[in-house]
Amino acid sequence: MGVKLQTIKDIRNYLSAELAELYPENEISSLANIIFTSVLSISRLKLLRSERELVPPRDAVKVIEICNELKSGKPIQYIIGETIFHGCIIKVKQGVLIPRPETEELVDMIIRENEGFIGKILDIGTGSGCIAVALASNLKGAEVTAIDISAEALETAAENARLNKVKVIFARADILKNGQPAVNKSDIIVSNPPYVRNSEKEKMHRNVLDYEPHEALFVLDSDPLLFYRTILEKGNYLLNPGGKIYFEINEAMGQKIRDLAESLRYRGVSILKDINGKDRFMKGNRNDPWQFN
Q1: DSSP-assigned letters across all residues of 2-61
Q2: Where in the sequence is the domain holding 123, given as residue range(s)?
Q3: pTM for the complete prediction?
C-alpha cells in the first residue's frame, strides 16, 4: 500500500496532506468527518474521544481509494452515494444534482412559513427529490407532487421518497414545452431551476463542472430568466388563487426576477437573502382573479 494508516489521527493527517492543494483546511476536516461517520461507520463520539483509536486495515485501504477519487475532483456525495438534507437521507449519483445548503434554507423557510399546512404542493424540476421529500416529511398535511424532465432523476427521487417513508407523486414533464403539465392545481409551487449563466462557469469548481449535470445548472446568458418566466406564466394555471410561489435564484438576478413576477401580477413579491447575505430566494402570491391592485 505504501502508506501506513493505523489510527484516526493518521487518517486525518493523510487527508490533510493529500487534499491540501484542492480544498481549504475546514473543508478537508468536513470531508474527513463524512468519511469517518458515513463510510467507516466510526461514531462521532469515538472521533471526539480519541484520535488514537485503531482503524482496521481494510478501512485504511478504503480511505486511500476515496482520497484518490476526491483528488480527481469527484464530489464526496457521489463517492458515498448519498447526503443528508434537512434530516432526510438523499441518495445521489452522477446525472442528479447534489443538494445545496441554500436549497436546504429554502425548504426550511417554506416549512416555517406554512406550519400546519393542508393542501397541495408542486415541486418543479425536482432532481434528487430533496425538496419534495423534505416537505412531505415535515408538512404532514401536504400532498406533494414533483415533476422533472429527467427519467434518471425521477428514478432517484422516487427511491428517496421510499427511503424516507414519505408519499410523493412523481411525473415526467418538460415545463418549457407548450401546454400545461398534467398535474392538479396547487397551493404552493416551489422550484430551484437552472439559473447559473454560462458566462459564470469559469468561477465554478471543477468538481461541479466535471461531474454534475449541466442541464440542471446552466442557462443561456441571452435568456437567464427563461425558467422563472415560464413557471410564473404557467403559475396562473398551476396555482390556486392566492397560492404561494417560492424560488431559489441567482444572486445577480434578484431585482429582475422581482420585476418579472410583479409584471405578471404576482403580489407580495419579496427577495430574501441566504445565510451568506446573498439574494437567493423569491417568494410571492398569485393574485386572486377578483382582486385588482
Answers
A1: -----BHHHHHHHHHHHHTTTS-HHHHHHHHHHIIIIIS---HHHHHH-TT-B--HHHHH
A2: 89-286
A3: 0.90
Number of domains in the chain: 2
> In terms of Cα–Cα distance, which of 95, 88, 71, 91 is closest to 80?
91
Mean of pLDDT over the chain: 90
Give the SS3 label for residue 194. Answer: coil
CA distances to 96, 161, 285 from 215, in Å: 10, 23, 28
Which one, of 106, 169, 116, lies nearest residue 138 by Cα?
116
- State the cell numbers at 208: 461541479
Strand pairing category for 196-197 and 186-191: unpaired
**Does residue 209 carry a pLDDT above 80?**
no
Q: Tens digit of pLDDT for each residue in 240-274?
A: 999 999 999 999 999 999 999 999 999 999 999 99
Torsion of CA 115, 120, 125, 127, to 10 degrees: 70
Q: Are residues 183 and 56 in the same domain?
A: no
Query: In this structure, what DSSP letter does residue 173 have?
Result: -
